[in-house]
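Handout for the seminar on molecular recognition.
Each group receives one record of this type.
Step one: identify the two inputs.
Step two: read the structure output and locate the region that could contact tryptophan.
Step three: write two sentences on what you found, then compare them with the reference statements printed after the record.
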Amino acid sequence: MKRDEFSGFFGVLVAAVGSAVGLGNLWRFPYLVGQNGGAAFILIYLAFVMIICLPIIISEFIIGRRSRANTVKAFQILAPNTPWSIIGVVGVLASFCIMAFYTVVGGWTLDYLFRSLIHLFSKPDISSLESQFTNLVTSPVRPILWTVVFMIFNAFIVMSGVKKGIEKYSKIMMPVLFLMIVILMIQSFTLPGAAKGVEFLVKPDFSKINTQVVLAALGQAFFSLSLGMGCMITYGSYIPSRENLSKLSFTTAISDTLFAILAGLAIMPAVFAFGISPQEGPGLVFIVLPRIFAQIPLGNLFAVIFFIILFIAAITSVISLLEVITAYVTERLKMKRTIAVLLISLMVTVCASFSSLSQGVLKEVKLFGRTIFDFFDHLSANILLPLGGLFIVLFVGWYMKKSQVYDEFTNQGTLKGTLFGAFYFIIRYVAPVAIAAVFLDLILR
Ligand code: TRP
């Protein structure tokens, strides 16, 4: 049977950007910016995206397209009879762990979306926003039901295939996402006091910069671009051979960054206009923003738009995670796609239910000192991703033959490959050192 493939440049792009743009951009990026000195953090983040992460996206695409296989088999094909395929196995594991908490947050966005739809024309009660959030996440049944609904969307899209599922739905949803963020941004700009928020985002305060901040920026760049666990390897394996990998990677990195900045521009002015501290942190999206919506004209309409944005961002990311495992299971066990997706989704839902419950009734159950939810989060984002990323660059920079890498970079010598020298240098020397630094910082912290 012929392997599925994306239809062309735009198809790959929406899928890759869909994977990259997620809760990482809309929820994590704004509060990290808030905590780490605003514009100065953004500048460092931009430098990391362009200098370190862009070459890593290219590397993942190269591994995927060269082998045309799932992330485990990719390494078996390129490095037969070596332990390198462990990277792929770790990637599959990481996808699983990320989904186990990401789908729970996806469920919360559905619950919020549903409630803001119901209250579309009424004034919400702002005194209880905090307890509304706590009530939701600690209740035993409701968040799990929404997680299941979220997972059904996820499974449905991935089941439909790469071109007819992932690509098709990303092509519809990503432009909607972009349009809605722009609407929200314009609305946010009209709030009194919004200028303060914009200033915070464009005027760097370099006194806030220290190694901690620098490392946080690199870690965020990694998570936001879906790097380090074979997501881009898997998507790379579906890229037609005529497409230019460096151009695709560049456009993906720029778009992801644009979305992060737009999200910052949509959220920060509102935060300042209502006198909320930009350092509010993870609660920003679910507690602080609804408070703002409650106080502006047509607030519930904007709440609906905002939670649709969050939902689209989350679903187009989570399908890339499910695809990593689905590609592996279908190719390894020769299982039918539909059955594989159903089985994996079932397993993810069971784990996700436990991480949901760990916000409430199972709060006391600890794995290595963390709740189940935090354990999945920490294990994947802070340990598996950087480790995977490190080995991926080492693989392309030191194990693969330079001629092989060059071949894939230039589409068999048909592209000029002007920047190949710079790319190769970064992959061999700069990226491994930088990632090792982040990794050590994260585990020693
Ligand atoms: N990049 C997504 C976000 O910003 C999350 C994500 C999807 C991810 N696939 C990934 C993160 C793979 C790390 C690795 O929300």
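Reference statements: The chain has one domain: 9-444. The longest helix spans residues 299-333.
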